[in-house]
Amino acid sequence: xxxxxxxxxxxxxxxxxxxxxxxxxxxxxxxxxxxxxxxxxxxxxxxxxxxxxxxxxxxxxxxxxxxxxxxxxxxxxxxxxxxxxxxxxxxxxxxxxxxxxxxxxxxxxxxxxxxxxxxxxxxxxxxxxxxxxxxxxxxxxxxxxxxxxxxxxxxxxxxxxxxxxxxxxxxxxxxxxxxxxxxxxxxxxxxxxxxxxxxxxxxxxxxxxxxxxxxxxxxxxxxxxxxxxxxxxxxxxxxxxxxxxxxxxxxxxxxxxxxxxxxxxxx
Amino acid sequence: xxxxxxxxxxxxxxxxxxxxxxxxxxxxxxxxxxxxxxxxxxxxxxxxxxxxxxxxxxxxxxxxxxxxxxxxxxxxxxxxxxxxxxxxxxxxxxxxxxxxxxxxxxxxxxxxxxxxxxxxxxxxxxxxxxxxxxxxxxxxxxxxxxxxxxxxxxxxxxxxxxxxxxxxxxxxxxxxxxxxxxxxxxxxxxxxxxxxxxxxxxxxxxxxxxxxxxxxxxxxxxxxxxxxxxxxxxxxxxxxxxxxxxxxxxxxxxxxxxxxxxxxxxxxxxxxxxxxxxxxxxxxxxxxxxxxxxxxxxxxxxxxxxxxxxxxxxxxxxxxxxxxxxxxxxxxxxxxxxxxxxxxxxxxxxxxxxxxxxxxxxxxxxxxxxxxxxxxxxxxxxxxxxxxxxxxxxxxxxxxxxxxxxxxxxxxxxxxxx
Lengths: 267, 418
Known about the structure:
The complex is a heterodimer of chains A (267) and B (418).
Chain A: E1 2-6, H1 9-29, E2 34-38, H2 42-56, E3 65-69, E4 71-73, H3 84-91, E5 103-104, H4 113-126, E6 132-136, E7 157-160, H5 163-169, E8 183-186, H6 189-193, E9 197-202, H7 208-216, E10 234-239, H8 248-255, H9 258-263
Parallel strand pairs in A: 1-10, 2-3, 2-6, 3-5, 6-9, 9-10
Antiparallel strand pairs in A: 4-8, 7-8
Helix pairs in contact in A: 1-2
Chain B: E1 4-7, E2 21-30, E3 33-42, E4 45-46, H1 49-56, E5 62-65, E6 70-73, E7 75-80, E8 82-83, E9 86-87, H2 95-109, E10 114-121, H3 126-132, E11 147-148, E12 151-154, H4 179-187, E13 193-198, H5 205-214, E14 218-221, H6 228-237, E15 241-242, E16 275-278, H7 287-296, E17 301-303, E18 316-320, E19 323-328, E20 331-334, H8 347-358, H9 362-367, H10 371-377, E21 394-397, E22 403-408, E23 411-415
Parallel strand pairs in B: 1-5, 2-5, 2-6, 7-10, 10-11, 10-12, 12-13, 13-14, 14-15, 15-16, 16-17
Antiparallel strand pairs in B: 2-3, 3-4, 6-21, 8-9, 18-19, 19-20, 21-22, 22-23
């Protein structure tokens, strides 16, 4: 795996966006679609902004891009400001030239959750699998909504959210905990593991312990992102704050590789 | 299939039918203000872009680059006496001539970004009303011209003292003993009437207001000598508007404010809101008076031009009903007097002047010529906003409110030549 340590969140976003651009251009040159797995949340926001800038500058087109989002709340109207459909539409999709027929977000308003999840896995397979899964992590090391205790072999499914997550989310729902969704549909850990490449974005000191557990401790379902240790091509991009819990030798080791990593996104 | 990318001057925009069109790179006026957004249109209606994206999962057939211009709902003028040499109060000899004049004005208004208007008729004889009113059937905007919202009948039930340019001999100063009978005798059918301006102090006025409201007509108080009391009674009876505030009414007095006092009346409630037309041409309303109105009751401010036949014409002598008007620059005076007639200012001019005189934001000025008049007339579920489902009647303007292009039902119906 790679750990790329950038100075701040803005640099993390820049690196991540450049990496996505590089992958899109490679796929386009090979006459192929690039299939992306996409997250929501404050951490990837910066990456989306950079990608929009690259699009507006004519550096990139999303014409040959397909997307699969990681998760979506259950029983939250699609057009609710906090739904992930809204997040992706407002912060990314409406600003670029992606064909809406090529985007996929789990439908949390379906009456048959199991079928919706099975269909989602089938569509990923039909698209040839995900080329690059971009993700963020929670302070407890969860990836998508695979919270502590989720099976590392899990697939796309409905998940009941834990109390901490619900309380943390209340601030997005007018501080009213009764309005916070209690369930979500989420891709599984194995679904992410099946991707050809995974890129995890981590910023802020509140994620430092999670990063430590993810890369310096053993693989554990109590920290689902630690499964990435077994991924054949995983990249973590962190800012300085997120490395505060890492051993000095770990940080020095990966910083020593930065020139090589930097060359991955030169254009 | 990828979208065809066009600019606003493309000839295709005048002929778009049922294609899915996305207007992008524009500042869209919505209730939250001016925001960089897109507008999606098909079959002449504004679509919900998320529904298009997530349900139809389709890309636009056509994308139109608006080059950073402001995209505002088309302007609405509730008081327009004519323009371009045509006077709505003049009926000469036949219906065809009148209809052609109306159509000419409607067509020319598109260049001013006006997509809806109320043809305004000043005090006239019953014979004239009976001939004109059937010809003023409401219509939607199209490439043929701005849409007709229905007639605005200013008079004849007005104060003789405050008639302004209205012909004295035709003014009717009482609606007693039978207001409904008198109205039907004078106007004929109320079917094509959108607004009636009347003086609330006349005998029988309150009953007349209730009658007009029951027929779906908006009542505006004006050309009046009324004190505040009758004005408040009018509002409680259902009147919703003051006609050209400050003009043709009693001046403000601290022991009886007259109709101007309605702006702060305790009788105003959500059930009885009040709008007022105001002419911000720099002539009819002093800038200081504009500021007084704006700071006293900004929610009720509605821009009207009260423009006459000379709108869009050069200086000279023009007709307004049976009256002769002399025009010089932006001033229009009744022949032989110093009485101000209607204005010769366009709606974009009035919007600009309101901003300059009051310092109000452009969003407020534009809303005062779009959403507010639409709400007042009860047509905001079709016009005056860019909300989903509405008619795609809009105008592209720059920050100086210069009209660059006008669209009706999604088709470009006017393009400014640079």
